[in-house]
Amino acid sequence: MAWKYFVPLAPRVLGAGQAASLKSVQLALCRDVMLTHATIPQELSAYALASAYYGWSFSADPTDILSAAGCPR
């Protein structure tokens, strides 16, 4: 049910897949926010869902890129 809610808001982060790299997840997060106009809280929730589903474990927190100046414009 949650997945269906987030698909229109965060299609790139949800579709990144199990073998996604830190950089590809960061890019997906930024593109979702910029292109689908997901709010930061929505994108963080979608990331948490995808991370649990895919079993992601990165050396750095990919969501840090969503801070004030993190995403490239």
Labels describing this entry:
73 residues; mainly alpha
Care to describe what's here?
It is a single chain. The chain is an all-alpha fold and 73 residues long. It has one domain (2-54). It has 4 helices and no strands. It is globular. 25% of the residues are buried. The mean pLDDT is 92.
In short:
The protein is mostly helical. Helix content is 53%, strand content 0%.
Q: Which helices and strands, and how do they pair?
A:
Layout: H1 2-6, H2 11-14, H3 22-36, H4 40-54
Low-confidence stretches: none
Please give the alpha-carbon distance between the first and last residues: 32 Å
Order of helices and strands: HHHH
Write down the Rg: 11 Å
Note the total helix count: 4
Extended strand count: 0
Percentage beta strand? under 5%
Helix and strand composition category: mainly alpha
**Whole-number total of structural domains:** 1
What integer is the average pLDDT? Answer: 92
User: Based on CA inertia axes, which overall geometry fits?
Assistant: globular
The largest sheet, given as strand count, sense and whether it forms a barrel, is: none
What proportion of the residues is helical, as a percent range? 40-55%
